[in-house]
Amino acid sequence: MNTIDPSVPGRFSRRGFLGLGAAVGGGMLLSACGGGSASGGGSLKFWDMPWGQSNYTAAAKKLTEGYRPAGDLPRATYQGIQWANFSQTFSSAIASKTGPAVSTGGGFQAFQFAEQGAIAYADGVINQFRQDGTADDFLPGQLDAMKTANGYAAVPWQLDFRVWWYRKSLLDAAGVKVPATWDELLTACRTLSGRGLFGFGTGAGAGNNLGSQGLHLMMLNNGGGLFDPDGKVDVVTEANLEAMRFVQELVRAKAVDPASISYTTDNLITQWKNKKVAMGIHTAGLDTDTGETDGDLRVMGPLTGPGGAKAGLVFQNNIMMYANTPSQEGSEAFLSYYIRNMKTFWQQNVVAGLPVLKSIVALPEFQAQQQKAKIIAEWAPVARTFAANSKSLFGGLASVDSSQPITQFAQTVLAGKDPRPALTTLQQALEAIVK
Amino acid sequence: MTVTSERDTLRRGASPLSEISRTRKSRRARRTLLLLVAPSLVLLLLINAYPLVYAALQSVRDGTLINAGEYVGLENYRATLTSPAFWRAVEFTLIFTVVGVFGSWLGGLGLALLLRTRIPGRTVFKTLLLLPWVVPVVVSSTAWNWLVATPQSPLPSLAEALGFGTPLFLADPTLAKITVCVFKVWISVPFMMMLIGAALAGVDHTVYEAAGVDGATKWQQFRHITLPMISRSTYISWILMTIFCVNDFPTIFLLTGGGPVDATTSLVVLSYRTVFQNFQVGPGVAIAFLMTVSLVVVSVALYRQIRKAHV
Description:
The complex is a heterodimer of chains A (435) and B (311). Chain A is α+β, with helices and mostly antiparallel strands.
């Protein structure tokens, strides 16, 4: 029995019901398809990666919220972004015009997005820095590294090095002096492997790029690199081949843990903690990652390669501005404020990266961190970028760093396979993805 | 006389006019129903079809994650189908799926049969056995990594103590494949156990009693009663597990990242790495499309088996 009285005026007709449904559905659709902007309720969205432990995020949020813009310029809101799938996070937000106005991010993200038209070049900020002298505070070459044919893609704010570390107690116990050349390194590795220790601590497992970056550092140390001066992929070179043959020699000398090709970063750190690794290439934060800042873990000086060259590998982490912003002037003002006040991170010792400003390097709080200070003093002057031997950074680097071909290459070489076919395969694979 | 035959008699005796009127009413009702579900259908189509169509367009373009890029025809498919990495991924996906589906099915069936018998603490066992399925993969993969990753980890240490040397469970390509497959089976057995357990509960016990009276052995009862009676659930579980295995990203990616040297790279991992690490959107989406088509074909084939299966 129908319990609805047809005489009741409020009853839905079939057409009325369908019309209402269509209206609701249409409304939802329109709202879903609507564009967005990088303003969050009249403010600039600043997206930041976790560059340290949880206390970093709190400090960065405080710094962002402490920004007091002049006049009508928008204030800034802080949003922490996780490293997991960060490329998707940024790309989907930019594509849907809901992305940030200003952000930190991957080292080559600014160059990648600049080539896709999503970046607002930082020339205005840099010019201002040149006028007020802030530009002179940057370590040599750091600002120029951000330069592209169309302008400055971003402003550098911290440096991420790959350097050689050693555990002093293990070297002392083995009677091994800290190596300064490749020959000394090989000799030290042979002595250490005789004691069941690894002299080339590395890892190339899930999410761990230290293996490929370590090999890259060895190439740079021998005058090689992944690119030619014009930015074209140039992997199969005599310099690279010689460097990889040296690594093969290290593998034969049992300096490389055979399981390391599957080591995650956590596995590798565990091996450092377990004192199975005596030497190895790592980030500047190995001592803090292992929780050992007592001085047993120490940074070596840059090794001298067979050709007499010294080199380090550095990633210039940067802050970028996006074309989709509620106020370009506001973005620039916030970025200037952030760079000028970021010393608080090093004063509080909450950031893993190394400073890009001389004034921060000179801080007593930073100089107290002896290993990091040593990296700036000894490694920064010889450090080369991931783009070497290209003169400048470019967007294609984002698809090389941590890519499938380079990981596969690292796993192949660290397993002791012949490096020539591995380099040839890498050359072909990188040519396909770097455009 | 049954209700149906009464209705048939009435229908046969109905006049042509009332028949026409009934047909019209039926058509109107159908139209009303269709109109009522139309908004939901439209929304569902938009939610599901839009990304699918967009992805299809991306697979024939040379775009980025932000820009659509240029139309390149079937070049991405050609490049994919001629890539050795793709065929290596196909091979591992097949191994992973076959081992994952049948390994977990055998394990689940065994446990479901075991738990059908009256054993003390059955409920506790059931709860404990569900844990691998319930625990997030991130947690269980971390636990497995701890078990096998380094030479000092518990399983390599045990193997060494037993005189098997120090197996590199994640660094040796063959062992890594085996480890990932075993991990998948371990995770999936509880799901299979639940599905098959539910199906077994529906089998009338008197059938076994009758078979026993006829002299059927336990094996014959299992072969000719149990398996046919749970065949529908079995096929459903195979379809679901095939989909789970082919689409499984975290199990592989968290444990091995697809390595060493691509040994455990499945199609879904390859697709992910191509799009989000190599930033080759077109080829990556083409891989995903080829994978989807294959999955649909397998699912339809298994679905046909369900229709043939016993109730």
